[in-house]
Design a protein that fits this description.
The complex is a heterodimer of chains A (264) and B (257).
Chain A: H1 9-17, H2 21-52, H3 57-72, H4 75-85, E1 91-93, E2 98-100, H5 101-127, H6 131-139, H7 144-174, H8 186-197, H9 201-233, H10 239-257
Antiparallel strand pairs in A: 1-2
Helix pairs in contact in A: 1-9, 2-3, 2-5, 2-7, 2-8, 3-5, 4-5, 5-7, 6-7, 7-9, 8-9, 9-10
Chain B: E1 9-18, E2 21-31, E3 36-40, H1 47-54, E4 62-67, E5 70-71, E6 74-77, E7 80-83, H2 86-93, E8 96-99, H3 111-121, H4 127-140, H5 156-168, E9 174-178, H6 186-202, E10 206-209, H7 213-219, E11 222-227, E12 230-235, H8 237-242, H9 247-256
Parallel strand pairs in B: 3-10, 3-11, 8-9, 9-10
Antiparallel strand pairs in B: 1-2, 1-4, 4-5, 6-7, 11-12
Helix pairs in contact in B: 3-4, 3-5, 4-5, 5-6
Classes of the chains: A mainly alpha (264), B alpha/beta (257).
Amino acid sequence: MIAATPITWHVIWSRITDPDSVFAHALWATVYISVVAQILGIMLGLVAALMRMASFRPLRFLSGLYVLIFRGTPVLVQIMFFWLVLPLPNVINFGVFDMRSEFVAGILALGINEGAYMREIFRAGIDSIDRGQMEAARSLGMRYGLAMRRIVLPQAARVIVPPLGNEFNNMMKTSSLVYIIGVYELFSDAEQGYSHAIDAGYFVAVAFWYLVLTSIWSFIQALIERKLAVSEHGDEISLREKAVAIWTEGGGMVRAAWPWRARA
Amino acid sequence: MSVSSGLVMHAADVHKRFGRQHILRGVSLDVRPRETVCIIGASGSGKTTFLRCINHLEKIDSGRIQVNGHPIGYRERRGKLVEDREKNISRQRTEIGFVFQRFNLFPHKTALGNVIEAPIHVRSVGRDQAIAEAETLLARVGLADKKDAYPGKLSGGQQQRVAIARALAMKPALMLFDEPTSALDPEVTGEVLDVMEELAHEGTTMIVVTHEMGFARRAADRVVMMDEGVIIEEGSPEHFFDSPTHERTKAFLSKIL
């Protein structure tokens, strides 16, 4: 006979309204891991995207290999692999702060995986900019790096930022996978609670908290995209128009955060 | 001293291939200071490619190009041409202004922002000085009142004039114009050509690839006819338009005039 796991209302309610300090730690860990891994992914993605355009063939090959491997295998496997293979001491000292080794392995795995996706996003963004822009910059004596930084990338940002925002939304949810190597984050916290009380309410509550995180992010994302759109048109948009836009995009925000749209 | 001393631009036997297509088949041209040279010819004759080779937007396969006595894009090493370092190429390009057929203004920057960009970030000119110079240049191309406008809000003719100001802001020794009015509506070509004519009369050294024969006649010191990757005829505008000698030049002019 199969007995369904109970879902108790008071468990859900107490986990939402009365979070304890351990939960606060877990929440912070999720945010922290997601942000650092995403930043790592952005940097790696940019480097890989530039490598892909290099005239030196081995660089292009490496860039392709990177994407092939990290987009072609499960991130869960990558997390496990980094955790098992990297010879890390229990606590790693980064000078100004310490970090537990499972955090480091988890962040590295998530960030490196993310870099492969970010490379494609950067590539699409850079490719969307007319070749004449680079030529004009070069003809003014700008070196490649300067032209990229001042002329091409700022324009590519319009194309890059919306999918980047979605990537970060995914990252916050995907980061739950590092629970498998013992990182104490939101999902681990729910799992912990569940294993004591055998009540699925913990997972309902944690879903709520993920939803809060992704919703806040979607709101920030809408603001950023709004700002970019303004600089694109090059004229000021009135405060009222901004407010209206953010309000209407708020609808999209809820839709974007809806769990079944998730990739992870 | 090299053979090219005293010349702003010296090109000798320049060859360029795109795959199996032999676009430039030995182009030689010298441009003296304060001279305006117009390059004419049918499309596909290699004139735009040649212009792009002068500031190394295209690599050449053989021959040599010098601007202000310095070889462009290449160093000679044991008798072979080796591509120069990016740093050197970039520095040489600051000497060469390039105006594109399609303007290529930076759309995320205002007219003023376009003009001050390279002086500040390449020449390390102070911001205030760059702005003052840019405002002078924009006034010179008749766009003082449009300095805060973004390219998207400007007409084609206005955009091209900003592009000219942007190139001039680097105080180049040589200005290259690649069919600067071909992408413009007929009613605004005049305003761009007027600016260019003024530059020519003020003594700017320029090479202009153009189909505007009226402009060539009025502004050029020398007209050069290219056909199938070589220069087939060159001379003063009077010679060129009144008594061309080469059969192909005659045929081309009779078609276009």
